[in-house]
Amino acid sequence: MTKLTRREIIEEINNQTGLGVREGDQVLDIVIQKIFSSLASGCGVEIRGLGSFTHILCKPRVGRNPLDPKKDIPIPHRYKIKFNPGRDLKAKLLKLSKQIPREDGNAKTSDKGKNKVSASSRTKKTINKASQKRVRVA
Question: What is the residue extent of each domain of the chain?
Answer without folding.
Answer: 110-138
